[in-house]
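Bug report (template v2)

What were you trying to do?
Predict the complex of my protein with pyridoxal-5'-phosphate.

What happened?
Run completed; filing so the output is reviewed.

Input:
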Amino acid sequence: MIYLDNSATTYPKPQQVIRAVDNALREYGFNPGRGGYRESLKTAQKVYAARETVKTFFGMSNAESVIFTCGCTHALNIVMKGVLKRGDHVIISSLEHNAVVRPLHQLSEKGKITYSIAKVVPDDDEMTLQHFREAINSRTRLMICTHASNVFGYRLPVERICALAHSYHILFCLDAAQTAGVLPIHLTHDGYDFVCCAGHKYLYGPMGIGLLLIGNDNLIDPLIDGGTGSVSSDLAMPSFYPDRMEAGTLNIPGILGLEAGLRFVQRQGIGQIYEKESRLINVLEDRLKDYQHLKLYRNSNLAHQDAPVLSFAVEGSDSESVAGFLYKESAVAVRGGLHCAPIAHKSVGTLSSGTVRIAPSVFTTQMDINILVNSLRKFR
Ligand code: PLP
């Protein structure tokens, strides 16, 4: 198989990650923070060391603000449901994933909150910023913004949107599902209140692990209540992180696998990973741009900053059948359709046909791209 669907989840995982998961089950198969015996304490120390690795990776000031979650969707739900109170207003970008849009839609259907969608103009950061500014009202409490579109790769001016939010005392949450491990994220410099990450994408961890990184001192409400192994006599959840947000037994294989993924990315270098994947996307764009009936969705001015994915549509064909053809013809696995981001497709004008998305990882080769291009030539 030629796997080019790494935005869905990266495959293969690095050997170090596979070994770390295996080792976690053999050596750290104990419940941390729940027992006074050596094995439980050793596991707790190992988890703490993983928090430290995450802290350093994302330029945070303390490891307690690293919350392990089941994934990015879980982390985003914690933020939305932990922060928002009745009557609050939220602003999101027009490129958000359903992991953001659906929880907000539910909350608004129940009459709890309202939300606005600020249109992203891919080639014009000033206009994008202007749209965020125009959407602010006196009830706006939170802005949520994807770092880069999971469909088109368009990168948003998130540092400036965050500064805009803060100038109005609005909290800012970054959805880094597609960019953690590919673009630099530094909580202390960038000032984000919350960053939500998927462990299984470009951090090369296993599925079932994600991160909520908290960059401010506010205590938000937990999404799930339960045992933490700390202050057990108190029926209320602990008033300190990370325990407040981590009810129930932790996913030790996931956490230790994710830590190995972070170390893998650190060793490769985020800059080098970005360069390598962008080079493949640039070559692909070059080779596809003269194809008749094929429309590429790429930023004209700012493509050099975008996340390394490429979406295209074939005139007269729905994108799922193009993806189906590629797999049948040459075992090229790509994703066609709406990529769980209908509002992004609506905003770009691809809602009816969807797009085919090509997403390399650090393991993708030029040969993989050549096979894709040659199979596409045979379509129709
Ligand atoms: N946000 C974006 C931009 C995504 O692309 C995804 C997944 O594709 C998510 C959130 C949800 O991530 P997960 O499936 O790991 O919960």
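What did the reviewer find?
The CA atoms of residues 193 and 215 lie 5 Å apart. Residues 2-10+269-377 form a domain with the Aspartate Aminotransferase, domain 1 fold (CATH 3.90.1150.10).
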